[in-house]
Amino acid sequence: MDTPTAPPKTAETAPEAAEEQRVxxxxxxxxxxxxxxxxxxEHLTGRWGVLVLAGLHHGPARFNALRRRVDxxxxxxxxxxxxxxxxxxxxxxxxxxxxPPRVEYSLTELGRTTAAKLIDLIEHLEAHMPAVLAAQQRxxxxxxxx
Length: 146
Description:
3 strands, Arc Repressor Mutant, subunit A, mainly alpha
């Protein structure tokens, strides 16, 4: 019985396939200085990344609606955050060809699964804020008492 063989790689796809194979073989370690996961982690956990992903968790949004949802973010920072998250594969930007053009942002599958984990963290934090505030007050009293 003949076993099927993969079609031969063309000259155009061979370098891409080799790069994909190299990436699959890498061991990523966020604690290593040069690991490419570090800047991605910064994009996600920076001041606005978590809030943008959480803001898109409930569904697609246009830029200004997302800006209203993420209270306090400037237009410039929201644009930069969306660009970084889009480049990293968490956010999809869709331009609709209507007049005027309409741009909508949504989460990719990777963005949805990541946002779900971040939502868990947010809910955990919000549920434990009384304990956090009490710890902060205790710490401040002890520090001021020294």
